[in-house]
Write a structure and sequence with these properties.
With 215 residues, the chain is mostly helical. The chain contains twelve helices and no strands. The protein has helices at 3-23, 30-48, 53-56, 67-77, 82-91, 95-108, 113-120, 126-139, 147-156, 160-171, 178-186, 191-196. The radius of gyration is 43 Å and the shape is elongated.
Length: 215
């Protein structure tokens, strides 16, 4: 073999050795072997366990509380009998509003749950009735009124929260008993006569036109 051919052969052999050296697989690190064994065992165990199709696709969501159940529970806590609680909750369009109203009034005043429930069922906004009764009982600065009088005043008012603001606000500036302020705020036409003794203004009489003569 000629010398140039020998050089080409040697270069080819060296090139093949370099290629085999670069593509030879590296040994697997020990930590990967240690980690892979438990993972493989868990995979095999999971595949061996039977899983029913129904349980595999079941999604669980938190249940919302039944409003009638909560209503009955709160009314019983307020001292309402079981029969009365059942009737009140079943008759209410929004049972939790009724029960919350009766329970809060009973807890924050000395009004019984039975009396509170009777008023809560008669108003359009039980939550405003609750706010009215509680605020007048706790925030008035003059001689307090009977609790049932406060409850009745809030029930009769078309705007219970505004009515409570009237009573509480006047009690902070005027030294009148609360029952007098309740009567004044319920009927604004009597406000002057209630507060300073002057007679209430008489509404003007409506004049009726004379009947027309028939020809």
């Amino acid at each position: 073999m000629s010398q140039p051919a020998q050089k080409l052969t040697n270069r080819a052999a060296m090139h093949n050795r370099n290629i085999s050296r670069t593509v030879s697989p590296k040994p697997t690190p020990p930590w990967m072997l240690a980690l892979g064994t438990p993972l493989l065992a868990l995979s095999l165990l999971a595949a061996a366990l039977p899983i029913s199709p129904a349980s595999a696709i079941t999604l669980r969501f938190p249940r919302t509380q039944n409003p009638y159940r909560v209503c009955a529970k709160e009314l019983i806590e307020a001292g309402i009998g079981a029969d009365a609680a059942a009737a009140a909750c079943a008759d209410a369009l929004h049972p939790r509003d009724i029960s919350r109203c009766a329970l809060q009034i009973n807890r924050k005043t000395n009004i019984s749950g039975v009396e509170a429930l009777a008023s809560c069922r008669q108003v359009r906004r039980p939550d405003e009735l609750t706010t009215c009764v509680v605020n007048i009982n706790s925030k008035t600065k003059t001689q307090p009124a009977a609790a049932l009088l406060v409850l009745d005043g809030c029930r009769r008012s078309l705007l219970p929260e505004r009515f409570a603001e009237c009573v509480v606000g006047l009690s902070g500036r005027l030294d009148f008993p609360t029952d007098r302020l309740i009567a004044t705020c319920l009927d604004p036409r009597d406000r002057v006569s209630q507060l300073d003794g002057r007679p209430a203004p008489t509404p003007p009489m409506e004049l009726m036109p004379p009947p027309s003569r028939l020809n």
